[in-house]
């Protein structure tokens, strides 16, 4: 895009969109940020074809997650992984609040209706 076009767009209230690309081609977040480091990072392990079911708590501290593997093949084997330091939830705008609520973090009414054991009340979960 030329500078002239960029100025025109800015004046009109629009801004140029930035896209993640490598060598001129669109890349996914995985291709851009994870796969280049898979071999070199000793502390990184990716478990594919898995779905996190719940966060596991010790008191009100998340200490691990349970997850299903072989998901696409319809076999749901349940697994547990313990966190040494912390659990980071990054399941996206729908997946993250869903996972939190399934784990007992969310608005009281929803958790009570779903008969989920309440860990922490968070009334704004799912409201973003
Ligand atoms: C059409 C479009 C184009 C975009 N282009 C760009 C771009 O070029 N550059 C840019 O920087 N941003 C771009 N964005 C924005 C970018 O995609 C998001 O900001 C970013 O992906 C958010 O990352 P995230 O990790 O929070 O969530 P997500 O990318 O949504 O990742 C969440 C992941 O968690 C998984 N998940 C959900 N629930 C579970 C569960 N229970 N167990 C296991 N996994 C689970 C989902 O399958 C998903 O893979 C674009 C967005 C859209 C819609």
What layout of secondary structure does this protein have?
Blueprint: H1 3-11, E1 21-22, E2 25-26, H2 29-34, E3 50-58, E4 61-69, E5 77-82, H3 92-102, E6 105-106, H4 108-113, E7 120-121
Parallel strand pairs: 6-7
Antiparallel strand pairs: 1-2, 3-4, 4-5
This protein binds flavin-adenine dinucleotide (FAD).
Feature tags:
128 residues, alpha+beta, FAD/NAD(P)-binding domain, 2 domains, three-stranded antiparallel sheet, two-stranded antiparallel sheet, 4 helices, 25% strand, binds flavin-adenine dinucleotide
Structure description:
With 128 residues, the protein is α+β, with helices and mostly antiparallel strands. The protein folds into two domains: 1-41, no CATH class; 47-128, FAD/NAD(P)-binding domain. The chain has four helices and seven strands. A three-stranded antiparallel beta sheet has the order 3-4-5. A two-stranded antiparallel sheet has the order 1-2. Strand 1 (21-22) and strand 2 (25-26) form a beta hairpin. The longest helix has 11 residues, at 92-102. It is extended. The relative contact order is 0.10. It binds flavin-adenine dinucleotide. The site of flavin-adenine dinucleotide has 10 residues, from strand 3 and helix 3.
> What name does the CATH topology of the largest domain carry?
FAD/NAD(P)-binding domain
> What's the main sheet like?
3 strands, antiparallel
Basic shape: extended
Total E-strand runs: 7
What is the number of helical segments per DSSP (H or I, 4+ residues)? 4
Provide the spatial order of strands within the biggest beta sheet. Answer: 3-4-5
Spans of at least 5 consecutive residues with low confidence: none
In helices, the fraction of residues equals: 25-40%
């Amino acid at each position: 895009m030329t500078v002239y076009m960029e100025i025109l767009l800015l004046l009109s209230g629009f801004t140029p969109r930035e896209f993640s690309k490598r060598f001129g081609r669109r890349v996914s977040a995985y291709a851009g940020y994870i796969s280049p480091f898979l071999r070199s990072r000793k502390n990184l392990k990716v478990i594919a074809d898995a779905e996190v079911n719940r966060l596991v708590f010790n008191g009100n501290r998340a200490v691990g997650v349970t997850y299903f593997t072989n998901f696409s093949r319809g076999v749901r084997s349940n697994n547990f992984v313990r966190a040494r330091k912390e659990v980071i939830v990054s399941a996206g705008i729908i997946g993250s609040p869903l996972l939190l609520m399934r784990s007992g973090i969310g608005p009281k009414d929803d958790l009570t209706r779903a008969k989920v054991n309440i860990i922490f009340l968070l009334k704004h979960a799912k409201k973003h």
